[in-house]
Specification:
The protein has 139 residues and is mainly alpha-helical. The chain has 4 helices and no strands.
């Protein structure tokens, strides 16, 4: 759950394809999170799907404080669309990966180059050791 919350917070998104992903989710634990035990209110979406008051706070996804919890949880689109992220995380993450692809490729190329240089150095060292063994005279 924490990974999902962090992702939704970091990418300003909700669910994989959108907030409706949570409508058929039967897991109750997150729906009662931080609510009074006697409360009959259940969250319709996680708090990290809401626009947060504490969005600049350190690790805000761990203790999300929605701007307006009841409006964010509302079933009326004209109300909830103002206070919740409506887009899904798949598209946001996909766009982020595409924007980072050059950096990822450069990092992989450097890593591969280091592996090749390590193999080359190991082979050269092994050859020197073998040459040194040939020069040792055993009595």
């Amino acid at each position: 759950q924490k990974a999902v919350d962090k992702t939704q917070f970091q990418f300003n998104c909700c669910g994989v394809d959108g907030w409706k992903d949570y409508s058929n989710n039967n897991i109750i634990s997150w729906r009662k999170e931080d609510l009074s035990p006697s409360s009959t209110f259940l969250l319709t979406i996680p708090r990290t799907c809401c626009r947060l008051l504490n969005h600049v706070s350190y690790r805000a996804w761990e203790r999300p404080q929605p701007e307006n919890l009841s409006a964010c949880q509302s079933s009326l689109p004209e109300i909830n669309s103002i206070y919740r992220w409506t887009g899904g995380c798949y598209v946001s993450i996909d766009n982020w990966i595409k924007s980072q692809s050059r950096s990822i490729l450069i990092t992989l190329a450097i890593f591969n180059l280091m592996q090749v240089l390590t193999l080359y150095t190991t082979a050269k060292l092994f050859r020197k050791i073998e040459d040194y063994k040939k020069t040792i005279v055993y009595l």
